[in-house]
Amino acid sequence: xxxxxxxxxxxxMLLQGRNPASSLAENKARIKxxxxxxxxNYLSLxxxxxxxxxxxxxxxxxxxxxxxxxxxxxxxxSLQRGDCRASAELEISSASAHFGEEAELVGSRGSGTIxxxxxxxxxxxxxxxxxxxxxxxxxxxxxxxxxxxxxxxxNGCHNINLVTPSHYVPHILLALDQAAARGLRLPxxxxxxxxxxTDVLELLDGVVDIYLADFKYADAQAAGKYSPGAHxxxxxxxxxMIEMHRQVGVAETxxxxxxxxxGLMIRHLVMPGNVARSDRVVRWIANNLPKNTxxxxxxxxxxxxxxxxxxxxxxxxxxxxxxxxxxTARRAGLTNLRLQMQ
Length: 342
Description:
Layout: H1 11-16, H2 24-32, H3 42-47, H4 50-61, E1 90-98, H5 103-106, E2 111-116, H6 129-132, E3 138-140, H7 142-154, E4 160-163, H8 169-181, E5 188-192, H9 198-202, E6 210-214, H10 220-226, H11 233-248, E7 252-253, E8 260-269, H12 278-288, E9 294-298, H13 319-331, E10 337-338
Parallel strand pairs: 2-4, 4-5, 5-6, 6-8, 8-9, 9-10
Antiparallel strand pairs: 1-2, 1-3, 7-8
């Protein structure tokens, strides 16, 4: 769960805040001298024309939308809004260098985050509910999204971090194709709730460099209650994690910069009363993925939005609750943990 930076500027502000005289030659020179910035795989897909083809395939899925596990069947191309509350019009809340992500993504210049409006999972406790539930954002074209990516690169960000991207993945691939033609070569971070269909993920093979994925629940009843209608979350997310790992493997860090440039990074938010069954989450990871899988065990659960309608999750977690999850993860043999409260 990514927190929206307090000073994040709206995309239009970001686009106006940079001198357009910044040249592509200067940008390429900076990239050449940065040991982190190696050519990502999506460049070869772009050169073959496959990036655009995949974007068009995904676009067609919006005619009877089945991009996310809700499979709502809405004709989003006719501008109807699906269960995720999105139509085919691209809506974005903010784009900026963000310093609140994991240190291995932020570095010294920030992670280039683009916060997409609306959401497929719709958690009742979402910290960014103004964006995910209330639709805070503005409408942009695919060309605008490509411009945002390029400007984040020119501003020195280490990666392009796509926050809550699932319902706009067709737009993302088409924009990435345009941006690649104009010099984009930063790693792409797919910052997802984890509830992803494997057939959609397969079309992202070779496009995404880093999967930054939540594993929220290992209990179907809790998933359906706190993310209404998402009872299949554990089953779907387990399959998604395996596919993400197949594509990008264990997170790899550049030894000179300490930045992750490729791989799977998992987040798990510890919730009050172990309602999400954190013990099952960490054991599943240990039993089904390499023991050195990157896992950020997060302690910052904050009751927001509709969480107060559910007494059992209307409080912060305790230190003991957090430490129990950490102990379980260690006993399960996981070795690449990022810890907060201890």
